[in-house]
Specification:
The strands form five sheets. The protein has a 21-stranded antiparallel sheet that branches. A three-stranded antiparallel sheet has the order 4-3-9, with no helix packed on it. It has a three-stranded antiparallel sheet with strand order 12-14-13, with no helix packed on it. The chain has three helices and 31 strands. About 10% of the residues have low confidence. By secondary structure, the protein is mostly beta strands. It has a domain of about 35 residues. β10 and β11 form a beta hairpin. It starts with 8 loop residues before the first strand and ends in a 7-residue tail after the last strand. It is about 5% helix and about 50% strand.
Length: about 650
């Protein structure tokens, strides 16, 4: 498979520390748990994925991101430049530490209890990545004001080359520069973070276990949590003006070489501030020309950011009843929340009431998700204890689910984005019903087996996805919004009614899963045992999105091993994926360039312009990356336990 060798993949450095202390007293145990981790990662991926150095860019004279003209008269018109494209990702550094202190009473008493507290701290600094060309441009390529490279598609009826707009840092520097190729893909040479997140969380918790009778036991748990989250985006001055630090909002001046960098103005290192839309009814009433409705744009120096605080209480109640036969009936009901969050979308282009482009910062807050879970089960052994069984049914009521929404409108100001943006929105509810069974069977003294089966029916009770509001299969059936009534319909109302995913199966939730295994062990000589196992796992078809328009098929995998073992030595021959199952594991949408349609040139030399090269039907993001399993793999493992250790 073709590949760009410079794409070495992911590099991750991880430092982790854990400390646990138990202090036994006459009344119980005091426990302290401390955890710390620091992770730094970066990566260089092959942005072409399977094209290697075969991604042909289209040569076109004087192409820009604003209005690419006809290519017909330029030397090398419609010429293709085979090129590799790398995805440079400097990556984040994440530091987190936690501390828990709890006291647990003695367990040999009728009433048992536990109480404690927990604290968690997180700092996440993320750095901006970009695609970059992986090789030198050909000698005939004019990198100056008279030549450039175009990446389709083109947004008709304009002449804007969308690909050039999105992937501009991967291209040569702007016209007016000396011949220059950005080998670092427009990355910040000072490696400064552009997004910074911080979180602090503390909680108090307690639990009680009480033996109501010798057969009936009750348990209650209570936890109160407070989460405080901060998020900020840091704008650094781009090199667009001869005046240091005067490029935000962006100036119209061409770049100047004395910036010290092709993309960033290194003369001013402080954050340059941001524009945000604020509500000002009184001011807008006096100066309506400066506003859109009741909102006006306001510049704020420093970092653009926001915070969110969430406080909630969760609980669980359970009962266990033991029968004379030794079988136990158990049940529980629990209420829990998944923390909300905050995202900062910096410097997004908005269209104001005059039709002009304005930069604005979007603070995307979303609330916690809620779930109430019910479970009822029974477990125990047959009289000869050769068979164990554990079976349970469950129902989950999931509310205020966070769904990713692709929207064209700023939810605060009501202004339209120049390009659609992804926001996290509490916009879905789901009901999850299912049952699960686990059984272990001692078939002989040497042979045992284990069977697990689970069924889950996970359906969206209600949910809206703005991303699909105008898709025919998700369009509203409201009579006032039919195609024949569109001329008189309220377009915004019809769009709000569309994109309904109620009744769809939740993503990545297979209806059926099962596993079956057989294990054999027998003493053969001295303290040596022969052992072997065969296991099979089945996973049903599962959708890759809540829209249910894409899925991965059901798959079954068989593994096996056979070997010898003593208290000090183990020797095993093993095979994974014995029958070479090659069905995909998962799929997700991305923007890597691996479309097999021709997005490069569809008109002969001398005919047409760059506008005729391609359109959004061929746009690279309209694709999926599919993850496939490892095929049959086999090996031999030898283990030795040193220092007198024995199994």
């Amino acid at each position: 498979m073709p590949k760009v060798p410079e794409a070495w993949g992911e590099n991750r450095d991880l430092t982790r520390f854990n400390l646990g202390i138990d202090w036994e007293t006459d009344y119980g145990t005091l426990t302290a748990l401390t955890g710390y981790s620091y992770m730094k990662e970066d990566m260089i991926n092959d942005f072409n994925r399977v094209a290697g150095y075969g991604m042909p860019l289209v040569y076109c004279q004087s192409v820009s991101n604003l209005d690419p003209p006809s290519c017909d008269s330029s030397p090398g018109a419609w010429g293709r430049i085979p090129m590799g494209v790398l995805d440079f990702e400097p990556g984040p550094d994440i530091e987190e530490w936690s501390q828990e202190i709890r006291f647990t009473s003695r367990r040999d008493q009728r009433l048992r209890w536990q109480a404690g507290g927990y604290y968690f701290h997180l700092v996440d600094n993320d750095r901006k990545g970009n695609p970059g060309l992986a090789g030198d441009l050909p000698g005939w390529f004019d990198i100056g004001p008279t030549g450039n490279v175009a990446i389709p598609p083109v947004a008709l009826p304009t002449s804007l080359a969308i690909g050039s707009y999105i992937f501009a840092p991967a291209l040569p520097a702007y016209p007016g520069y000396d011949p220059y190729f950005s080998s670092y893909a427009g990355l910040d040479p000072l490696d400064r973070p552009f997004l910074r997140s911080r979180g602090e969380s503390w909680s108090l918790f307690g639990s009680l276990d009480f033996d109501i009778t010798d057969r009936l036991k009750a348990r209650g748990e209570l936890r109160h949590t407070n989460d405080h989250l901060w998020s900020s985006a840091i704008n650094h001055t781009p090199c667009l003006s001869p005046t240091p630090g005067a490029a935000y909002p962006a100036a119209t001046d061409i770049p100047f070489a004395d910036c010290g960098d092709a993309f960033y103005d290194l003369r001013v290192l402080d954050a340059v501030g941001y524009d945000v839309w604020v509500k000002d009814e009184e001011g807008c009433a006096i100066n309506p020309g400066e506003c859109t409705g009741d909102y006006r744009s306001q510049f704020i120096p420093g970092y653009e950011g926001g915070s969110a605080r969430f406080s909630y209480t969760t609980w669980r109640l359970g009962l266990d009843y033991m029968f004379d036969t030794g079988w136990m009936l158990y049940g529980s009901v629990a209420y829990s929340k998944k923390p909300g969050g905050i995202n900062i979308l910096p410097s997004k282009e908005l269209v104001d009431h005059t039709g002009s482009m304005r930069l604005g910062t979007i603070v995307n807050r979303f609330d916690p998700e809620e779930i109430t879970a019910y479970e009822l089960g029974i477990k125990g052994y047959t009289p000869d204890r050769r068979i164990s069984l554990d079976m349970a049914v469950f129902f989950n009521d999931w509310q205020d689910m966070v769904l990713r929404q692709l929207t064209e409108v700023d939810p605060v100001s009501g202004l339209h984005f120049r390009q659609p943006q992804g926001l996290n929105v509490n916009s879905g509810d789901a009901h999850v019903f299912g049952w699960e069974l686990t059984t272990n069977v001692a078939m002989t003294d040497n042979l045992s087996s284990r069977l697990t089966v689970a069924y889950t029916d996970s359906k969206m009770k209600k949910g809206m996805l703005d991303s699909y509001a105008l898709f025919p299969s998700f369009y509203t059936d409201d009579p006032s919004c039919t195609p024949g009534a569109l001329s008189t319909a309220d377009a915004e109302r019809c769009q709000r009614l569309s994109g309904d995913i109620s009744g769809k199966t939740q993503m990545r939730q297979p209806p059926w899963t099962a596993s079956l295994s057989f294990d054999y062990r027998k003493q053969v000589f001295g303290d040596w045992d022969v052992l072997g196992s065969v296991s099979g796992n089945f996973t049903d078809k599962q959708f890759i999105g809540n829209d249910n328009m894409g899925w991965v098929p059901a798959r079954a995998v068989v593994n096996m091993n056979v070997g010898l073992e003593s208290p000090r030595y183990t020797l095993k021959f093993w095979v994974r994926n014995l029958f070479d199952d090659d069905k995909p594991l998962s799929g997700y949408r991305d923007i890597f360039w691996t479309n097999d349609s021709d997005i490069y040139a569809s008109v002969p030399t001398g005919e047409g312009s760059v506008r005729g090269i391609s359109n959004f039907d061929d746009f690279p993001p309209m694709r999926l990356t599919v993850t496939y399993p490892s095929l049959r793999t086999w090996g031999l493992t030898a283990q030795v336990r040193f220092g007198g250790a024995e199994k």
